[in-house]
Amino acid sequence: MELVQVGEGVHAFLRPDEGANVGLVRTAEGLIVVDTTSCAADMQGLLDAVGVSTDRVCQVINTHSHSDHTWGNQLFRCSILSHRLCRETMAINLQGPWKLDTIRESIALRSQTDPDWAREMQKETIGLQITLPTDTLDRRALKIGGVRLEVIHVGAHSPGSCVVWLPEPRILFAGDLVFEGRYPFIGDADIPALIGAIRRLPDFDAQTIVPGHGRLCSIEQISALGAYLEGTWARTIDHLAAGHSTDEAAADPGYPHYAEKAAERLHEANIRVMFSQLAGDGACPL
Ligand SMILES: [Zn+2]
After folding, report:
1. Residue % of the chain over a pLDDT of 70
2. How far does the centroid of ligand 1 lie from the alpha carbon of residue 64, in Å?
3. Cα 94 to the chain's mean position, in Å?
4. What is the DSSP string of 46-59?
5. What mean pLDDT comes out for the span 256-264?
6. Any idea where the domains of the chain sit in the sequence?
7. Which of 73-87, 114-128, 170-184, 238-252 has the lowest mean pLDDT?
8. CA-based torsion, 265, 266, 269, 275: positive or negative
9. Ligand 1 ion: Cβ-proximal residues, 5 Å cutoff
10. How far apart are the C-alpha atoms of 95 and 223, rounded to whole Å?
């Protein structure tokens, strides 16, 4: 984990090896936390690292519903803000895959094939009480403790995905629209919308872009992510047009690459997600 000051009173916890990034914005009223990691203990560890107690946090914002951005919510007693669709997705998940028994079952099942993942999940879910956002967006521009910020609904990565924009220091918390240094997770994405949203990110003319995963990134890196998704989408369309199967597409070595080492399994998974979306079979292979 690396703590980086990205502006006056604005910090980012960059966690390329641990999971999702977290933003911290100091205001006259207290601190704003952007995303809460995958467990309360991790989130507590980040606050401890900067000597901040949870009662100094006056606002939490979830950029989207995925567990690695929201399962640390239980630590906070203040308002937790998200888009309506983010909250709805979390509420639906709580009735199904996020039921504690169901989580335990899937950890037990996966422990046969992926013991490291299972061990990590076991640790992260001790004492887990998945906590929904308490508030949903009713306006995009907010002023908290003298700090102006905008929570902008984009969708694309997941239906309720938002970016958090601080217009004065020109800092963009891009959430999972941007993965730096590793393949993106696109299991819930609307791919054409995602490509369009990534292509429009330079319009913010941001001073600093904090991705959902990885290190601070440049416009060139964002452009490389857009090109990877665009190229993978186009090549998958060609496979479908040629009547190939999803396995044939996934075995094609001619696909573009984004990151050589990190989360390489997502390279093949992303081809399969795109194939499935294009074929309209609705079966998500992740
Ligand atoms: Zn995500």
Report:
1. 97
2. 7
3. 19
4. HHHHTT--GGGEEE
5. 78
6. 2-83+133-217, 225-279
7. 114-128
8. negative
9. 66, 176
10. 38
Using one digit for the tens of pLDDT, what is the confidence trace for 29-58?
999 999 999 999 999 999 999 999 999 999
Give the integer Cα–Cα distance in Å for 166 and 6: 11
The number of residues making up the chain comes to: 286
Examine the pLDDT at 260 and tell me if it is beyond 90.
no
pLDDT tens string 217-234: 999 999 999 999 999 999
CB 231 within 8 A of CB 260: no
Q: For the chain, give percent helix, strand, coil, nearest 5.
A: 40, 20, 40
Q: How far is the CA of 243 from the centre of ligand 1 (A)?
A: 31
Q: Which CATH architecture has domain 2-83+133-217?
A: 4-Layer Sandwich (3.60)
Residue 242 CA to ligand 1 center (angstroms) comes to 32
For the question of whether the overall pTM of this predicted structure is more than 0.70, the answer is yes
Please name the residues in contact with 225: beta carbons below 8 A apart, sequence gap of 6 or more. Answer: 178, 179, 184, 198, 258
Where on the phi/psi map is residue 155: left (φ > 0), alpha (ψ -120 to 50), or beta? left
- Per DSSP (E only), the strands in the chain are 2-7, 10-14, 22-26, 31-34, 57-61, 79-82, 135-136, 141-144, 147-153, 162-166, 171-179, 208-213
Instruction: Kindly give the distance from the C-alpha atom of residue 68 to the centroid of ligand 1, in angstroms, as a whole number.
Output: 7
For residue 260, the CA-to-ligand 1 centroid distance in Å is: 20
* Dihedral of alpha carbons 261, 24, 118, 285, sign: negative
